[in-house]
Amino acid sequence: MDGEAQIVVRASSGSPYENKIGFSRAVRKGSYFVVAGTAPIDESGATVVTVDAYDQMKCCIRIVKRAIEDLGGSLDHVIRTRIILTSIDDWELAAKAHHEFFAAIRPVTTVFSVDRFIRKEWKVELEAEGFIS
Question: Pfam family of this protein, just one (predicted)?
Answer without folding.
Answer: Ribonuc_L-PSP
